[in-house]
């Protein structure tokens, strides 16, 4: 498959652009309380935060090295796909028409609502067709929809609180950019709020 990051493993399976590989490592660096105003890395560098000042998980970038970890999402590639509206599978631009952007979500059985928060990046139509054939979770149930609005909402990650000698995790949550709690959150995924959704059928 073409695109920024589509790959295949040794068995020839298509590996999503946003998936993590076993050759990529979560870098464990100590967190500190930043003047009582949130968390920071003790050895923080500019690249640890995004343009909104949010602190992100440190993960090495070695796509294609090792074996694919399909259930583990790579924070940087997920954030890039969400921000640029790239297909989560092939890394090319997602399907986008005058009616909105295409999303393929697992059907959790939860009641539908006019607006929803998602951390799954959008998708292109060929990859949507492929995904429902090969992904076990999607074969159990999926929802294909086109969202007319897809506002950047915030991040999904681990909430910390102040403690000695270092801050401690207390919850996993999605938090809006305007919420002060985002300064205490170590982000792993970017979140969009979808609205004006139309359910489609493959």
UniProtKB/TrEMBL annotation:
Name under which the protein is recorded: Uncharacterized protein
Taxon lineage: Bacteria, Bacillati, Actinomycetota, Actinomycetes, Pseudonocardiales
């Amino acid at each position: 498959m073409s695109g920024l990051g589509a790959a295949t493993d040794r068995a020839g399976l298509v590996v999503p652009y946003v998936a993590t590989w076993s050759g990529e490592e979560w870098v464990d660096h100590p967190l500190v309380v930043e003047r009582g105003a949130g968390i920071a890395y003790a050895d923080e560098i500019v690249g640890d935060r995004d343009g909104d000042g949010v602190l992100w998980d440190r993960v090495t970038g070695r796509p294609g090295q090792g074996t694919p970890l399909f259930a583990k999402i790579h924070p940087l590639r997920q954030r890039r796909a969400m921000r640029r509206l790239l297909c989560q599978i092939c890394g090319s631009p997602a399907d986008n028409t005058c009616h909105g952007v295409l999303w393929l979500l697992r059907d959790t059985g939860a009641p539908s609502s006019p607006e929803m928060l998602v951390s799954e990046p959008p998708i292109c139509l060929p990859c949507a067709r492929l995904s429902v054939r090969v992904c076990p979770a999607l074969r159990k149930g999926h929802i294909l929809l086109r969202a007319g609005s897809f506002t950047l909402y915030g991040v999904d990650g681990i909430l910390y609180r102040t403690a000695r000698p270092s801050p401690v995790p207390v919850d996993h949550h999605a938090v809006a950019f305007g919420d002060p709690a985002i300064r205490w959150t170590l982000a792993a995924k970017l979140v969009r709020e979808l609205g004006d959704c139309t359910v489609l059928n493959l």
